[in-house]
Design goal:
The protein is α+β, with helices and mostly antiparallel strands and 67 residues long. Helix content is 31%, strand content 28%. It contains 2 helices and 4 strands. A hairpin with a 6-residue loop joins strand 2 and strand 3. Helix 1 packs antiparallel against helix 2. The protein is globular. The termini are close together.
Length: 67
């Protein structure tokens, strides 16, 4: 589950694609400041994806592994 500020949304979409992931759900209405996305990625890529996500968002957004 990815929580990202609006200004990072395009970068996060690109990052998910770069890692070969798929966005499975998008919630653009629950939080006026952020989008909440669910993405499926390979478990082997989780650590690298999280590190890159932190870089891309300047550490201001969050990743939560659901399973």
């Amino acid at each position: 589950e990815l929580t990202c500020r609006w200004e990072n949304l395009d970068r996060v979409h690109r990052l998910v694609r770069q890692f070969g992931g798929t966005l499975t759900e998008s919630d653009y209405e629950s939080d006026p400041n952020c989008a909440i996305l669910k993405a499926e990625l390979l478990a082997a890529d989780a650590e690298a994806f999280t590190a890159r996500f932190t870089d891309v968002t300047g550490g201001r957004d969050s990743v939560k592994r659901l399973s």
